[in-house]
Design brief:
Number of helices: 26
Largest sheet: 5 strands, antiparallel
Number of domains: 2
Strand content: 5-15%
CATH class of the largest domain: Alpha Beta
Distance between the termini: 63 Å
Mean pLDDT: 89
Structural class: alpha/beta
CATH architecture of the largest domain: Roll
Shape: globular
Radius of gyration: 28 Å
């Protein structure tokens, strides 16, 4: 039955676009508020040398959970310092604490409301079901559009993903308060607020704290996902390790996350009934802790105000908050950009890690509002067709010269599938060809449809690729690619050509490190997205003896810092 597709995605896109414009002021306020709170928490956690916070957390864990866990806390945190992940751990703890604070401030009142109003519960419950089952990555998409790239959308996504247990457990805890106690409170003439604060909440506290504990754990589980939109911390270190196939770094960063998870879990589990409450009353201990935190925060804010450096408010740095919007951690382009920052002495600038999609979303938002923005760019890319952009001149050559994109296959492919090998070897096209496919995909066409459209329009060029190639008879061919717009376009096109010549093609999206490793170990047959001799040189040098380089399939690529034409700078040196 041929039924027209309901344009649900288009409706959602239109609604989000309207929200982005209509509520821009509100989103800006939330961004500034959350960013300010995060800075305060980070400053409190970063006060003094690492040993200060390590001893404070150790004492807190000993007080709440007894001395054996305190020793574990001391040793694990010292190990994190030794491994070099202390700063990342501070950023991760700050993100988790702020996400947890938001779940408490918003989740507990909603849970109370649900317990008191059945209608509210019936409305909120399916919303919570939706929030808990929707993939966490989906929350990042509108978060980028509403709050921009950086740590704020990561916190918002973590908060949405983690708030459900707090709401559910608060509702459950209040509903499970024995009816006879409620009747007794009513008999003594208690008001609704007295009954809530003196009967229901005290009795429901263990259940509520269990919900808070689970929310904090869920927020911590989001640190890697949040790194896709620029959230710093251990999540970005894990993501970088995955991209670079660095097992050691991945294990170290992952172990640091495990240590932090155990510490936060034990503290939140035992806050209500500390192990040594008979030695120091909880009210006294937590009051002292609160005063220390508050005092440190106030001193930190005052110190920040005193050390603020007055810079040119009209300069490009001030207008962009000294931020360059980048792509995935560990990408070759990010390494080149870090090199450029060092070469040009741009110490005040920060390279924001995220993803290619997040970078483009940030560019689109800035371009629509004619705001200045600096991004890490490469060509060919459809954004040069959709936006009026320019590269900043690189007089020091930090980004290298023009590159080529190579086709690389596994050893043995020529013997196993000679026709596929020949097609991949003869595959070659121009940047304009690639950009036309990318534009169609960006305009909403499925990648496979865009590939078919280009192939039909360029039959002569495709025949050159297949000339003399033996047709396949259903042999499986697995191609791997990075989720860059360039590689999506090229991989789908060559994959469709192989398919039309009798091969059963599978396309697998991976990170750049697994892309090279997959071809090298034979779990993938080939790729057509190796940028050489600069962007992917480290990966190429690692695996070059285990793969077959078929040479360039496209010439004339370029990397660098990119700005819209309306931005009044022309060189990287203008960023000083």
């Amino acid at each position: 039955m041929d039924i027209a597709k309901i344009p649900l995605g288009e409706w959602v896109d239109s609604f989000v676009a309207w929200l982005t414009v209509a509520w821009a002021g509100f989103f800006s306020f939330i961004t500034n508020l959350i960013g300010g709170l995060l800075d305060i928490i980070t400053n409190v956690l970063s006060v003094g040398p690492p040993i200060v916070l390590i001893l404070a957390l150790t004492l807190l864990v000993i007080y709440t959970s007894r001395w054996p866990l305190g020793i574990f806390t001391l040793l694990s945190l010292l190990l994190i310092v030794n491994l070099g992940y202390w700063d990342s751990s501070i950023e991760t703890i700050a993100i988790v604490l702020l996400s947890g604070l938001l779940t408490i401030i918003i989740g507990i009142p909603i849970g109370i409301w649900c317990a008191q109003r059945k209608t509210v519960q019936r409305i909120v419950t399916p919303i919570l079901d939706f929030m808990q089952t929707m993939p966490a990555f989906v929350y990042l998409i509108p978060a980028i559009l509403f709050f921009g790239i950086g740590v704020v959308p990561g916190i918002i996504a973590s908060f949405i993903f983690a708030i459900a247990p707090t709401i559910r457990m608060t509702n459950l805890g209040i509903q499970k308060v024995p009816e006879d106690l409620i009747e007794a409170a009513d008999a003594f003439g208690s008001t609704a607020s007295q009954k809530l604060f003196k009967v229901q909440l005290p009795l429901a506290t263990p259940t509520i704290m269990a919900g808070v504990n689970q929310s904090i754990m869920l927020a911590l589980s989001m640190v890697v996902t949040a790194s896709l939109v620029g959230a710093p911390g251990l999540g970005a270190d894990v993501y970088r390790a995955v991209s670079q196939i660095d097992v050691g770094q991945g294990f170290e960063a992952g172990l640091s996350i495990v240590f932090i998870a155990i510490i936060l879990d034990r503290i939140t589990q035992n806050l209500r009934n500390p192990a040594y409450r008979h030695v120091i009353k909880p009210k006294i201990a937590f009051s002292v802790l609160a005063l220390l935190v508050l005092g440190t925060a106030i001193v930190g804010v005052i110190a920040d105000n005193k050390t603020t450096v007055n810079k040119n408010a009209n300069g490009i740095g001030a207008q962009t908050e000294y931020e360059i919007v980048g792509i995935e951690p560990g990408a070759g382009l990010m390494e080149l950009t870090n090199t450029a920052l060092e070469d040009y002495g741009l110490d005040d600038w920060t390279l924001i890690e995220g993803s290619s999609a997040a970078m483009v979303a940030e560019l689109q938002k800035a371009y629509t509002n004619q705001e200045p923005i600096i991004i890490t760019g490469w060509s060919p890319h459809w954004m040069f067709s959709s936006f009026d952009l320019k590269y900043l001149k690189d007089s020091k050559g930090s980004f290298g010269g023009e590159e080529s994109i190579h086709s690389i296959v596994r050893k043995g492919l020529k013997q196993d599938a000679p026709g596929a090998y020949s097609i991949l070897d003869q595959f070659s096209w121009e940047p304009s060809d690639m950009e036309s496919v990318m534009v169609d995909i960006t305009d909403g066409m499925e990648p496979s449809e865009a590939a078919e459209k280009w192939i039909k329009a360029h039959a002569d060029k495709v025949s050159e690729w297949t000339n003399g190639a033996q047709s396949g008879s259903g042999e499986p061919i697995k191609l791997v690619f990075v989720a860059w717009d360039t590689e999506i376009a090229s991989t789908y096109v060559i994959g469709k050509v192989l398919e039309q010549n009798g091969y059963e093609v599978t396309l697998s999206q991976v990170e750049v490190g697994p892309m090279f490793a997959g071809v090298a170990n034979g779990s993938a047959d080939g790729m057509v997205g190796a940028w050489l001799p600069t962007t992917h040189v480290e990966y190429y040098n690692t695996y070059k003896n285990e793969v077959v380089d078929l040479g360039p399939n496209l010439h004339g690529t370029k990397n660098g810092l990119v700005v819209p034409e309306y931005v009044d700078i022309d060189s990287i040196e203008d960023l000083k």
